Structure formats: C-alpha cells, structure tokens
Amino acid sequence: MSFRSLTPDFAISPQLSVADVNAAASQGFRTIICARPDGEGAGQTPATEIEQAARCRGLEFVAIPVRSGASPDDNAVAAMSAALKQMPGPVLGYCQSGNRAARLWALTQVGALSKDAILMAGRAAGIDLSPLGDRLDAASHSPHSSAGKAPSRRFNIVIAGGGAAGLSTAASILKRRPDVSVAIIEPSTSHYYQPGWTLVGGGVFTPEQTRRSEDRLIPSGAIWIRQSVAAFHPDAREVLLDDGKVLSYDILIVATGLSLDWAGIAGLTETLGRNGVTSNYRYDLAPYTWQLVQGLSRGTALFTQPPMPIKCAGAPQKAMYLSCDAWRRRGVLKDISVQFDTTTPALFGVAAYVPALMNYIERYGIDLRLRSKLIAVDGPQRVATFEHVTDNGTTQVQRSFDMLHVVPPQVAPDVVKNSPLAGADGFVSVDPATLRHTTFADVFALGDVAGTSNAKTAAAARKQAPVVAVNALAALDGKAPVAIYDGYGACPLTVERGRIVLAEFAYGGKLEPTLPLWLLRGTQPTRLAWFLKEKVMPSLYWHGMLRGHELLASPRKAPGA
C-alpha cells in the first residue's frame, strides 16, 4: 500500500488493512483518520480493527465517517478540523478510495489556503477537488484574504523556502550578522534529506533517517513563517502569503525548490505506489522501491529519466545500479531484463565519468536507450509507452514491465513561473556567478529554483549558500556583490553497494574534486566515496551545512572585491 501526500503532514489512502497500519507506523504517521462508514463493501476491515491496530503501534485514531457519494457536512468538517489541530502529525486519512478523506482535509483549509493551493495539493495526490465548487471559493473571499492590505511585517531579509538552500543561507547570514532580521517562509513541518532517498530505495537507510522536524532546524535568530508564498511583488518589495498577509523586505532570497510534475506522464499519478510503479523521488515511495527489488526474481525492470533539468541527474541511474547489484547478490540478475530509458543524448552529462558508468551498464547487462522518453503508464496492465527519437524521426514503443522506476518531469513552481522573477525557462533569472537577479538588484536565488546551468544537487546548494549570504549582506549595505559561485555540483553515483563514482564538476563540465584525485581514484568507483555518502555526508548536511558551517565551502571573492 502506498500513501499519497497532499501536504508533508497529511496523506490519503484507500481502505486500510491491519498490515497497512503497520506500514503507516513504519513510515512515520502518528494519527489515522477514517472517513468511511463501516459496512460499505464486502471484505472491508471494520474501523474498530483498524483503531486497535493503530493504538497497538502507538498511533492515534479518529473516525469521521462520510457517506459514499455525499459531500462532507459542516459537522464532519468541524470534527476534521479539531482532529487536525489536536492530534499529532503526520496524519493519514482513508476511505474507500481516499477521495472523502481528501475532501474533508480540503474543506478544513478554506480560509487558510487559497483555492488554487488546495486544488494543487489535490492534483499532486491524484485527487480532483474541484467538485467542491463554491465551498472552496470561500477560500478566495475569506476574511484572511486581503490583497491590498498594508504589510503586516517587515524584515531585512525574507527567504522564500525552508529547504536545504534556504536554511543554509539563513544560518550563514546570521552567523555573519546576528542582528539582521530574517524571515523564512516554509509551510512544511518536516524537513527531508532527499539525497538519502536513493539509499532508502536501495535498502541501506530507513525513511526515518532522512526526516527531521523543521522547527529543530530553523537557525537561532530567524523567524519561521509557516505559510506558502502566494505571489512575489518585487517592484513593491513584497511577498504575498497564502493566508493573505504580506511580508515586505529589503532583500529577497528565493529558495523554493522545483516542482515534480507527476501529471506530466499520462496515467502515472493513478498508479504510483502500486502495480509495480515506484520512484525514489518521493519519501513515501522510496521504501516501495526496495520492496519491489526484494520481491522481483524474474521479469522486466524499467528505469527512466526525463528531460533536464532535474534534481540530481545521476539519481535515476543510482536507483538502477543499486537494484541490479541487489539482484546480482541474490543470483537472479540473469533472469531479469533491465532497461534504462533516458531522454538525454549521453549516459551522463560530464563525459569524463561515462566510461566507468558504461562498465556497469555492461556488467549488469542493462539495455541502454538514449533519447527515449516515458510518456504514459498503464499501471493495471503494466505497460509503459516510450517516445524514441531516432535519425529517422520519432516513434512510440510499448513495453510490459514487472517493475517501473519513474523519475517525473521537473519544472519551476507556478508561483515562480508566473512571477516577474522568472526567466524564459520559468526558473528565477539570476547571474550565474553572483546569483543576483538579472533585473531586481535586491533579489537573489539559489538551489533548484535558480535559473543556472549547474547540477541541481544539495552539494550545489552547499556551495551557493555562503555566496548568497555574503552578497545579500553586501546588497543590504548598498554594495555590489563580493562573492562568486563557480557552478560546483556533486553527484555520488552509487554503482553498487559499497562503491561510488563521486562526480564533482563545475560550470562547463570542468572537474572540480574536493579531495585529491589520487585519493578518490579520479573518475573510478571507490569504497571511500561510499563511506562518505553513507556515513559522512548525512552528518555534514544536518550538523554542518544547515547550521551555517562552511566546511570546504567558503565563498570565493569576486574579481576586484
């Protein structure tokens, strides 16, 4: 059973079994809400049994039954609102399909989130919430929605996004100048070490190792604004929040990350987490990857990579190599047909690393298909449709699968794409060296949302954060940027359990090793790189990068600075 997230703190599911309750507990859920009356269908597990199983695992349980085909009434919405306020999160709501649980959640958000934000959350989970109609329209006309209202708060620096890039930059700023007022806008109460999801999908990490509470990571001296950004108004130096309030700033730093466009592949959202379809690009799905790898002994496994840009361009391959290595160790790889379809014209964007990776493609017997794009998935039939680009044109090919690891297309968030900050590609238009906006001198951007050509990795954000911190403080003082970013990014390519090709490079594909090449054997796989990935990098992330410690990441001075 997979659970579909509307927010980091609320997910939905079809009818649960006792085994599903155990899975929910292992994935970190702390409350279960039943939105389905008993006795609706044959084989339906009674709510009392689900409650008993939940409490045995230390989870809270609430029943708010909504009749099939009916819209939740005001009493049910009030009960749901009370449960979400009183019960610990994350919360898992279930009914026959997940729809009623999602609608209950949506109606509790009226007045707190915009209608568009509610509908978008539903779409991300594969649920159409638009039938709620006028009841959601109230979100646009609530007393909290007040465009044109005077700014409620002002800060020296406003950071949009409390992920790796935003938190690291805030910490670096406050270490340099503790008296600066800094606000971090971030709706999620959980923070994820996303580079660890590859190892969750490979059976090395547990999901819980990659998750921590956001409030534990907010730097001392920063103010956490637990909202989403509704709009950027750089001409007025203002940010509109989802609750209708406005923040004004002297300097804006955009670090919202990018959006995973699951709906960009026909049929994908309906089958994610079941029918053998998985992805390490989501916290709740990475464990399913490992479950599929363990359960597959023969058949066909497909791995895909969409067009660039994407988070960590090596991650699609990492999932494949770790899966193949697990099958090799069990002695079943010879009975599994493995195919890698990537839209790129080469296996990896930096040519120096391709020979070592091709050795593993051949070792594992992987059918490599370049310029091949996944365009549709039929989960129940277990059929994937690809669009192949050849010298003779474009053709469509269908292939059956037993396991399909999908990486979704990735785009700039709508709030950025539709703002004056966006460049032609939808990402924030910045100077690639100073990371300052090309039009608005008081705006900077970093991380996945920045319109730069570097690899979109946590390692890139680690190098960018001090650069933006220094330059933002210079701008606050009315000075020109004093630090530059060279495009550094890193991708630890997990080619087998225990060995990694540590790819480190800057703008233009220039190799940029942190440690001496002789120590990491250049472009070859090493056990040392695996040790760094498994043992060192998580600690460096949680206790170094997010705390403003700039180990091996001190900003380079701009010429003449």
From TrEMBL:
<dbReference type="InterPro" id="IPR005939">
    <property type="entry name" value="BLH_phosphatase-like"/>
</dbReference>
<dbReference type="InterPro" id="IPR015904">
    <property type="entry name" value="Sulphide_quinone_reductase"/>
</dbReference>
<keyword id="KW-0285">Flavoprotein</keyword>
<feature type="domain" description="Beta-lactamase hydrolase-like protein phosphatase-like">
    <location>
        <begin position="3"/>
        <end position="112"/>
    </location>
</feature>
<dbReference type="GO" id="GO:0070221">
    <property type="term" value="P:sulfide oxidation, using sulfide:quinone oxidoreductase"/>
</dbReference>
<keyword id="KW-0274">FAD</keyword>
<keyword id="KW-0874">Quinone</keyword>
<dbReference type="InterPro" id="IPR036188">
    <property type="entry name" value="FAD/NAD-bd_sf"/>
</dbReference>
<keyword id="KW-0560">Oxidoreductase</keyword>
<protein>
    <submittedName>
        <fullName>Phosphatase</fullName>
    </submittedName>
</protein>
<dbReference type="GO" id="GO:0070224">
    <property type="term" value="F:sulfide:quinone oxidoreductase activity"/>
</dbReference>
<dbReference type="GO" id="GO:0016787">
    <property type="term" value="F:hydrolase activity"/>
</dbReference>
<dbReference type="Pfam" id="PF04273">
    <property type="entry name" value="BLH_phosphatase"/>
</dbReference>
<dbReference type="GO" id="GO:0071949">
    <property type="term" value="F:FAD binding"/>
</dbReference>
<dbReference type="InterPro" id="IPR023753">
    <property type="entry name" value="FAD/NAD-binding_dom"/>
</dbReference>
<dbReference type="GO" id="GO:0048038">
    <property type="term" value="F:quinone binding"/>
</dbReference>
<feature type="domain" description="FAD/NAD(P)-binding">
    <location>
        <begin position="156"/>
        <end position="274"/>
    </location>
</feature>
<keyword id="KW-0809">Transit peptide</keyword>
<dbReference type="Pfam" id="PF07992">
    <property type="entry name" value="Pyr_redox_2"/>
</dbReference>
<dbReference type="InterPro" id="IPR029021">
    <property type="entry name" value="Prot-tyrosine_phosphatase-like"/>
</dbReference>
